[in-house]
Amino acid sequence: MMRWNNGYRNADGWKKIREKLEDTKWLVCIVFAMVAVSRLLVYLNFLIWSGRNSFDGGFFDALSIYDTAWYKSIIGDGYWTEPRWGDQGDSANWAFFPFYPLLMKGIHVILPFDYDLLAFAVNSVFFAFALVLAVKYILLTREDWVHALVFVFLMAFGVYNFYFSLLYTEAPFLFFVAAFFYCMERKQYLWMGVAGALASGTRNLGIMLVFPLAAHYLTGYFGSNRFRLKTFFGNFFGNVRLVLGTVLIPFGFFSYMLHLYFRVGDSMAFVHIERAWGKGDLTNPFRVLWNSLVNVDSFVFYLSLWGVWGIYCAWLLLCSKRWAEFVMAFLVVMIPLAASVIGVPRYLIGCFVPLLGFTDGMGRWRKSQIFALCVFSFVLGEICLWGWFDSAAFVM
Amino acid sequence: MKKMLPVCGYAVSALLFLSYVMILGTSLFPKVCAEYRLYYIERELQDWPGYGGLQYRLGTPVVFRSTEEDRTRRRGNSWNSFEEDGCWTYGGHSALYFSGIFQNPGNEDGGAGNAGEEEKKRYVEIDVQEVREGAVSQVCANGEPIGQIASAGTFRFEFPQGMPEGDILLLEFFTDGFGPVGEDARSQGIKVREIIIDDAVE
Question: What class, spelled out in words, does domain B34-201 have in CATH?
């Protein structure tokens, strides 16, 4: 059980917030207000940054860098039949999964605004609903509204929060993962399968959601049964919603593979194209982490610290025996690390469960420590946002 | 009706599972060109040649000099970077890839050997700028030894009759005695300047 400081948890002022959080209408209003304020802060930061740097471009010129061009190419042209971009002309948009660009293309037909503006609005809405689901999930599994509030604050105002309004997949992926865990916990397996299918169509990590589901089933089974082959498989196959929900999870992933097979001739093109970004075959993630940790003069050292943080979060989930969350957190740290430390921070923040583990660990913290952590995360978030405007490599 | 719903659920699940297995199966048999396979899947090529970029027209010089814009993109992984006067092999095994030599009808008018029914002998001419002292390189075409290089100069090696022909002509250099040259610490064997494959009429 969580050990949040009851001294302030039960104070009268906070009780009102608790009541509001438990009312879905109020919860949506509070979370949307927090996200709106945090988006406003992103814009204010841009105004200050552009003034100081005499930047001629607009807000979205500064915000839409790196992979946004790839998503625009998919929304505009679909998947290419051959590589076009990069120094050697060997890069192609196959590395990016299709659900989000497809969704944006559909929305763009109805609302033909600029892609960046549309993405900013759509992803902010995804982000807000993801946080609403996160609060509901925390209240369901932890029954702790302070925990939920800290989680929402760290997501909305903390480090890397700007990623959730870019033309990137962070916001929809966060939403689908949160929806997956929420539905799984409520045993709404069909909805869980739909969320999993959309997650696996949004990012390759989405297919890994079958593993937390396996952990969820195993803990449920061994919590009330002694192992017998008949009941082990019988309980699973006897529940048609669970079977269908499970099989639905990889649907997005395999649909994309099939599309690539007909488009490019290689259903694994999304993996093979990684060569264009200099990524080798998957290797020992601990070796990648260590090699980056000892490289203290480089920005990869900073990224590797996030890798350590991710392992710590997974460890906290393991200690609290939250098996499904632990499995997902472990995979979301290890799989990206097996290739490179680049992008690890945003993968961790954008995958719901690692931060959940971290805020679990904060249950033993004093109020002042939690406040200090929130301030630290906010300041680091501002630094990263300015780094993003400057196209700094460490925020990739 | 109520009984039908679970049956439909199981049927859809089974169908989805089977389709996943079939889609996974496609990953074992990609329908891609040689360039894609060698560069992205097998990671054998050092540079991306583009689709059809390994196609070779007989008599066309394969250039290894950094000063030339159309320098070759046929190198396997074990080559050093291009220099003004050629490119050093790296380590004991370096390869070059050519496609369309054996079956491309366009090659009929490409080289010297297109004169009617006369017997043609296909050869490779290798212009070697420099050889590391003591290094000897055995040249093989599709696994068949065709000659040996132990000094600078231009070497012409004929392809043997009955050489295994496939989609790809793999020209390999197996080098003994490779190592640093002078103060250059890179692993080097022979420095190739230019290569031409053509037909000679007997």
Answer: mainly beta
pLDDT above 90 (res B104): no
Tokens matching residue A205: 């990590």
For chain A, list residues whose CB is within 8 angstroms of any CB belonging to chain B. Answer: 82-83, 88-90, 240-241, 243-244, 246-248, 250-251, 254, 257-258, 261, 264-269, 272-273, 275-276
User: SS3 breakdown of chain A: % helix, strand, coil, rounded to 5?
Assistant: 75, 0, 25
| CA nearest to A349, candidates A311, A302, A291, A306 | A306
> Measured between CB atoms, which of B10, B32, B47 is closest to A265?
B32
Residue B10 near chain A (CB below 8 Å): yes
Question: Which of A88, A189, A236, A247 should we substitute to test contact with B (largest number of B Cβ atoms within 10 Å)?
Answer: A247
pTM across the whole model? 0.91
User: What totals of helices (H) and strands (E) does chain A contain, helices first?
Assistant: 21, 0
* ipTM here: 0.89
- The distance of A166 to chain B (nearest Cα, Å) reads 30
> CB under 8 Å to B95, separation ≥6 — which residues?
B44, B75, B76, B78, B170, B171, B172, B173
How large a percentage of chain A has pLDDT more than 70?
96
Tell me how far CA of residue A103 lies from CA of A119, A163, A216, A252, B10, in angstroms.
10, 18, 30, 13, 29
* A22 vs A377, residue with greater confidence: A377
Is residue A2's pLDDT more than 60? no
Of B13, B27, B47, the CB nearest to A268: B27
Q: Indicate whether A1 pLDDT > 70.
A: no
Q: Which of B19, B48, B51 sits opposite A88 (nearest CB)?
A: B48
Quick one: DSSP state of residue A321?
A: T
Q: Are A216 and A266 in contact (CB under 8 A)?
A: no
